[in-house]
Design brief:
By secondary structure, the protein is an alpha/beta fold. The protein contains six helices and nine strands, in the order H-H-E-E-H-E-H-E-H-E-E-H-E-E-E. It has a single domain, classed as Vaccinia Virus protein VP39 (Rossmann fold, 3-Layer(aba) Sandwich), CATH 3.40.50.150. The strands form two sheets. It has a seven-stranded mixed β-sheet. The longest helix is centred in the first third of the chain and has 13 residues. The two termini are about 30 Å apart. The structure holds S-adenosyl-L-homocysteine (SAH). S-adenosyl-L-homocysteine binds next to strand 2, helix 4 and strand 4.
């Protein structure tokens, strides 16, 4: 069952109060039913601003952080986006309403398969999924206008920076997995990259290779 109007209104109010102010991002977040991406006993907490467990020992991110990361990407409707870390698929679904095409990858095949089923059920047709190690990006689809990592790297991966087009933006958490990390925005220029530190965050680590499931 989808959330009541009152629950959704409270959700949007919380997002705004935590700094998600871009109207297009708020509209996309209003459209995507987070409960569809959260299974079982946790589904009734889908509209609370907290991360929740999903399959394969991973987590669906806190909605206000999803909003802040989406906003930091400054997406245009014609953009082609790469997301590394599909997880539940929630973040990708929000991106899909703001951009032309979304490529999303996860190292767990099971998460990718489950997310695909939810995209299909929600009639989302502009997301392409891959079960692969996203630290190498997707060379065949590059360059990307925007790249989002939802797992923390110790440094921005060089391969991904090379897959960002000139003028493009990459947002990612940077730092050790067991410590507070920094959300970083990287902008590619003709002659190099600009780095901005946005805020402290906590994400699971970007791991090499494929997951067991
Ligand atoms: N964006 C997700 C939350 C992601 S949690 C959502 O909206 O629900 C982080 C995800 O990154 C996990 O699913 C984990 O499996 C994945 N991940 C970690 N390292 C990875 C890598 N090298 N390549 C692809 N996915 C990776």
């Amino acid at each position: 069952m989808s959330a009541s109007a009152e629950v959704k209104m409270q959700f949007l109010f919380t997002l705004r109060s935590k700094g998600v102010t871009d109207p297009a991002v708020l509209m996309a977040m209003e459209r995507v039913d987070r409960a569809a991406f959260v299974k079982g006993i946790f589904a009734d907490r889908a509209y609370q601003d907290m991360p929740l467990p999903i399959s394969c020992g991973q987590t669906i991110s806190q909605p206000s952080i999803v909003g802040i990361m989406t906003q930091a990407l400054r997406i245009s409707p014609r953009d082609k986006i790469l997301e590394v870390g599909t997880g539940s698929g929630y973040q990708a679904a929000i991106l899909s309403h703001l951009a032309r095409r979304v490529y999303t990858v996860d190292r767990y095949k099971r998460l990718v398969t489950e997310a695909q089923a939810i995209f299909a059920a929600q009639d989302i047709t502009n997301i392409t999924t891959f079960a692969t190690d996203g630290s190498h990006g997707l060379p065949d689809q590059a360059p990307f206008d925007r790249i989002l990592l939802t797992a923390a790297a110790e440094d921005p991966p060089g391969t991904l920076l090379q897959q960002l087009r000139v003028g493009g933006i990459m947002v990612l958490p940077v730092g050790q997995s067991d410590a507070v990390q920094s959300l970083i925005r990287v902008t590619r220029h003709d002659s190099g990259f600009d780095y901005e530190e946005l805020r402290p965050v906590r994400f699971v680590p970007l791991l090499e290779g494929l997951g067991a499931d």
